[in-house]
Amino acid sequence: MCQIFLLALLPVAYAETLYNESTFQPLAADHRARRPGDLVMVTVLENSSAATATGASAQRDQDVGLSADITGRRKFGANLSTENGYDANGRAQRSGRLLAQISAAVVMVRPNGDLVISGRQILDINDEKQEIFLSGVVRPIDIGDDNTVPSSRLAEASIRYAGQGELADRQKPGWWNRLLHVLGW
Protein backbone atom coordinates (compact mmCIF):
# COMPACT_ATOMS: atom_id res chain seq x y z
CA MET A 1 0.00 0.00 0.00
CA CYS A 2 2.82 2.37 0.83
CA GLN A 3 4.44 1.68 -2.55
CA ILE A 4 1.28 2.66 -4.43
CA PHE A 5 1.08 5.91 -2.50
CA LEU A 6 4.72 6.80 -3.31
CA LEU A 7 4.18 6.10 -7.02
CA ALA A 8 1.24 8.47 -7.03
CA LEU A 9 3.48 11.31 -5.79
CA LEU A 10 6.07 10.93 -8.58
CA PRO A 11 5.76 13.38 -11.51
CA VAL A 12 4.31 11.95 -14.64
CA ALA A 13 6.30 12.31 -17.88
CA TYR A 14 4.30 12.87 -21.03
CA ALA A 15 5.50 11.77 -24.44
CA GLU A 16 4.63 15.12 -25.97
CA THR A 17 7.48 16.79 -24.04
CA LEU A 18 10.04 14.42 -25.59
CA TYR A 19 9.23 15.16 -29.22
CA ASN A 20 8.20 18.50 -30.66
CA GLU A 21 7.27 18.25 -34.34
CA SER A 22 7.83 21.93 -35.08
CA THR A 23 11.47 21.92 -33.88
CA PHE A 24 12.50 18.37 -34.77
CA GLN A 25 15.26 18.00 -37.34
CA PRO A 26 16.78 14.61 -38.09
CA LEU A 27 20.55 14.23 -38.05
CA ALA A 28 20.69 13.55 -41.79
CA ALA A 29 18.48 16.51 -42.75
CA ASP A 30 19.65 19.41 -44.89
CA HIS A 31 19.69 22.93 -43.54
CA ARG A 32 17.28 24.57 -45.98
CA ALA A 33 14.78 27.13 -44.78
CA ARG A 34 11.30 25.66 -44.36
CA ARG A 35 9.67 27.16 -41.25
CA PRO A 36 8.85 30.68 -40.07
CA GLY A 37 11.96 32.26 -38.60
CA ASP A 38 14.39 30.23 -40.76
CA LEU A 39 16.85 32.23 -42.84
CA VAL A 40 17.60 31.88 -46.53
CA MET A 41 20.34 33.67 -48.49
CA VAL A 42 19.01 35.47 -51.58
CA THR A 43 21.44 36.30 -54.39
CA VAL A 44 20.12 39.44 -56.03
CA LEU A 45 21.20 39.82 -59.64
CA GLU A 46 18.89 42.21 -61.42
CA ASN A 47 19.47 43.99 -64.72
CA SER A 48 16.91 46.42 -66.05
CA SER A 49 16.74 48.85 -68.89
CA ALA A 50 13.97 50.90 -70.40
CA ALA A 51 13.71 53.43 -73.19
CA THR A 52 10.84 55.48 -74.44
CA ALA A 53 10.39 58.23 -76.99
CA THR A 54 7.39 60.42 -77.63
CA GLY A 55 6.49 63.11 -80.09
CA ALA A 56 3.47 65.32 -80.39
CA SER A 57 2.47 68.32 -82.39
CA ALA A 58 -0.70 70.31 -82.83
CA GLN A 59 -1.69 73.33 -84.84
CA ARG A 60 -4.80 75.46 -84.51
CA ASP A 61 -5.77 78.60 -86.41
CA GLN A 62 -8.81 80.70 -85.66
CA ASP A 63 -10.06 83.70 -87.52
CA VAL A 64 -13.03 85.89 -86.74
CA GLY A 65 -13.98 88.86 -88.88
CA LEU A 66 -16.73 91.44 -89.11
CA SER A 67 -17.06 94.13 -91.67
CA ALA A 68 -19.74 96.52 -92.77
CA ASP A 69 -19.66 98.92 -95.70
CA ILE A 70 -22.30 101.54 -95.97
CA THR A 71 -21.93 103.13 -99.31
CA GLY A 72 -21.21 106.69 -99.21
CA ARG A 73 -20.11 107.44 -95.74
CA ARG A 74 -18.91 105.04 -93.16
CA LYS A 75 -16.91 101.85 -93.07
CA PHE A 76 -16.92 99.57 -90.04
CA GLY A 77 -14.54 96.71 -89.58
CA ALA A 78 -13.19 94.36 -86.97
CA ASN A 79 -10.91 91.43 -87.23
CA LEU A 80 -9.61 88.95 -84.67
CA SER A 81 -7.10 86.29 -85.48
CA THR A 82 -5.34 83.76 -83.26
CA GLU A 83 -2.86 81.04 -84.00
CA ASN A 84 -1.69 78.34 -81.58
CA GLY A 85 1.07 75.90 -82.20
CA TYR A 86 2.47 73.09 -80.08
CA ASP A 87 5.41 70.87 -80.85
CA ALA A 88 7.04 68.57 -78.32
CA ASN A 89 9.44 65.68 -78.40
CA GLY A 90 10.76 63.67 -75.51
CA ARG A 91 13.05 60.76 -74.87
CA ALA A 92 13.91 58.88 -71.70
CA GLN A 93 16.37 56.09 -71.21
CA ARG A 94 17.32 54.35 -68.01
CA SER A 95 19.26 51.26 -67.05
CA GLY A 96 20.28 49.75 -63.77
CA ARG A 97 22.10 46.79 -62.30
CA LEU A 98 22.00 45.43 -58.77
CA LEU A 99 24.21 42.64 -57.46
CA ALA A 100 23.93 41.75 -53.78
CA GLN A 101 23.45 38.94 -51.30
CA ILE A 102 20.93 39.43 -48.54
CA SER A 103 19.63 37.17 -45.79
CA ALA A 104 15.87 36.92 -45.67
CA ALA A 105 13.68 35.36 -43.02
CA VAL A 106 10.74 33.07 -43.68
CA VAL A 107 7.74 35.09 -42.55
CA MET A 108 5.00 32.60 -43.37
CA VAL A 109 4.46 29.21 -44.95
CA ARG A 110 1.51 29.13 -47.35
CA PRO A 111 -0.87 26.16 -47.36
CA ASN A 112 0.74 24.85 -50.56
CA GLY A 113 4.20 24.90 -48.90
CA ASP A 114 5.56 28.05 -50.58
CA LEU A 115 7.61 30.31 -48.31
CA VAL A 116 6.93 34.03 -47.93
CA ILE A 117 10.28 35.72 -47.21
CA SER A 118 11.39 39.21 -46.29
CA GLY A 119 14.80 40.75 -45.66
CA ARG A 120 16.45 44.10 -45.17
CA GLN A 121 20.07 45.17 -45.20
CA ILE A 122 21.52 48.59 -44.42
CA LEU A 123 25.05 49.49 -45.45
CA ASP A 124 26.78 52.63 -44.18
CA ILE A 125 29.74 53.48 -46.41
CA ASN A 126 31.49 56.86 -46.13
CA ASP A 127 28.44 58.52 -44.58
CA GLU A 128 26.26 57.17 -47.39
CA LYS A 129 23.45 54.92 -46.17
CA GLN A 130 22.36 52.27 -48.66
CA GLU A 131 19.29 50.14 -47.94
CA ILE A 132 18.24 46.98 -49.73
CA PHE A 133 14.76 45.64 -49.01
CA LEU A 134 13.52 42.38 -50.46
CA SER A 135 10.32 40.36 -50.16
CA GLY A 136 8.69 37.64 -52.20
CA VAL A 137 7.52 34.05 -52.38
CA VAL A 138 9.84 31.12 -53.03
CA ARG A 139 9.18 27.43 -53.59
CA PRO A 140 11.21 25.18 -51.26
CA ILE A 141 12.38 23.21 -54.31
CA ASP A 142 14.08 26.37 -55.65
CA ILE A 143 16.27 26.70 -52.56
CA GLY A 144 19.68 25.16 -53.26
CA ASP A 145 21.57 22.69 -51.08
CA ASP A 146 23.60 25.61 -49.70
CA ASN A 147 20.35 27.38 -48.60
CA THR A 148 20.57 30.05 -51.31
CA VAL A 149 18.05 31.13 -53.91
CA PRO A 150 18.51 33.53 -56.85
CA SER A 151 16.21 36.54 -56.95
CA SER A 152 14.97 35.42 -60.36
CA ARG A 153 13.22 32.52 -58.59
CA LEU A 154 11.12 34.80 -56.36
CA ALA A 155 7.46 35.22 -57.19
CA GLU A 156 5.73 38.46 -56.23
CA ALA A 157 9.23 39.90 -55.80
CA SER A 158 9.68 43.38 -54.43
CA ILE A 159 13.26 44.61 -54.41
CA ARG A 160 14.03 48.16 -53.35
CA TYR A 161 17.46 49.76 -53.32
CA ALA A 162 17.68 53.29 -51.97
CA GLY A 163 20.41 55.57 -50.73
CA GLN A 164 20.70 58.53 -48.42
CA GLY A 165 23.58 60.93 -48.12
CA GLU A 166 25.38 63.64 -50.04
CA LEU A 167 25.79 61.66 -53.27
CA ALA A 168 22.13 60.63 -53.27
CA ASP A 169 21.08 64.24 -52.59
CA ARG A 170 23.16 65.55 -55.50
CA GLN A 171 21.32 63.25 -57.90
CA LYS A 172 17.99 64.93 -57.11
CA PRO A 173 17.01 68.15 -58.85
CA GLY A 174 17.24 71.33 -56.77
CA TRP A 175 14.25 73.00 -55.19
CA TRP A 176 14.17 75.66 -57.92
CA ASN A 177 13.90 73.06 -60.69
CA ARG A 178 11.19 71.19 -58.77
CA LEU A 179 9.23 74.45 -58.35
CA LEU A 180 9.47 75.24 -62.05
CA HIS A 181 8.34 71.72 -62.87
CA VAL A 182 5.29 72.09 -60.62
CA LEU A 183 4.46 75.38 -62.35
CA GLY A 184 4.74 73.66 -65.72
CA TRP A 185 7.92 75.32 -66.95
Please give a handful of descriptors for the protein shown.
single chain, 185 residues, mainly beta, 3 helices, 6 strands, 12% helix, 55% strand
Walk me through this protein's architecture.
- The chain has 185 residues and is mostly beta strands.
- It has a domain at 39-49 and 91-185.
- It contains 3 helices and 6 strands.
- The longest helix is centred in the last third of the chain and has 9 residues, at 175-183.
- It is elongated, with a radius of gyration of 36 Å.
- It starts with a helix and ends with a helix.
- The model has no long low-confidence stretch (mean pLDDT 76).
Topology:
Blueprint: H1 2-9, E1 39-69, E2 75-109, E3 115-125, E4 128-138, E5 148-150, E6 155-164, H2 166-170, H3 175-183
The count of β-strands is 6
Low-confidence stretches: none
Helix content: 10-25%
Q: From the alpha carbons, calculate the radius of gyration and give it in angstroms.
A: 36 Å
Q: What pattern of helices and strands is seen along the backbone?
A: HEEEEEEHH
Overall structural class, as computed from helix and strand content, comes to mainly beta
- Describe the sheet with the most strands: 6 strands, mixed
Strand content: over 45%
| Strand arrangement across the biggest beta sheet | 5-1-2-3-4-6
**What would the principal axes of the Cα set say about the shape?**
elongated
Overall pLDDT confidence: 76
Count of helical stretches: 3
Terminal residue distance: 101 Å
